[in-house]
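Posted in: Structural Biology > Protein-Ligand Complexes

Title: Requesting predicted complex, adenosine-5'-triphosphate in pocket

I'd be grateful if someone could produce the 3D structure tokens for the following input. Sequence and ligand are given below.
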Amino acid sequence: MLITRLAIPGQSSGEWPFTLPAVRALTGGVTLTAPVTFLVGENGSGKSTIIEAIADVCGINSAGGKAGTRYASTGPATPLGEVLDAEMTAAGLRLIRGPRLKRSAFFLRAETLFNLGQNVSGRYGFWDQDLTEQSHGEGFFTVLDRMVAGPGLYLMDEPEAALSFHSCLRLVGLMDRVAREGGQIICATHSPILTSLPGAHILELGDDGICATEWDKLQVVDHWRRFLAKPDFYLRYLLDESSST
Ligand SMILES: Nc1ncnc2c1ncn2[C@@H]1O[C@H](COP(=O)(O)OP(=O)(O)OP(=O)(O)O)[C@@H](O)[C@H]1O
Ligand SMILES: [Mg+2]
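-- Reply #1 --
Done. Output follows.
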């Protein structure tokens, strides 16, 4: 483990993002108990806000990228990143805050990956392939295979966005390997496949704040189960409504 706890020390303002229940929950502190943590929750529940703030605290550009390089030049910290405290182990301090060239922390962010690729493909410490010559999912895996390996901190925001069913399974295997190699992953996701990783710590964000839960109690898993068993049940009302307008 590299980061064992996230907390907002003291009082926080009444402005965004401190109005989000999940962010408010960080005032009491949240302990990370396993090498892989998933943040799960509805759109707008605060997953990206928290992942970006962790990136800020770890010196990674919150738009995505790698710590310890000049491409890591961070802009102003996000409001949560300015106050968030990440408790680190000795290994975490070495790999996240240690000498620049020894740092190992990477933030894979779906929206900005291809922009990042234009700046860093072929450069030392990154990947050789030109992502524009690969499919969306192939490009993702080029980056994952090269950048997410061994001890280090890996932040991910919806990595499943580009991935097929089988590629999601492959990513579960990669996450498991990284955890065994001494790495730590904190990943925002909507994927019932990724969250099925055995031993992962699942935090569900919602109106009640942040609750630790298990895979088969996740709302997203329940919805997928019901939908796949009976898609009509979900679609009937929706399609009737749209055809009547
Ligand atoms: N700069 C900002 N100023 C004000 N509100 C913002 C800002 N950025 C995001 N928000 C709001 O904060 C809330 C949480 O956003 P966030 O991006 O963290 O959600 P999320 O859980 O990652 O959602 P998704 O699953 O859609 O990616 C949203 O309601 C969003 O509109
Ligand atoms: Mg998000």
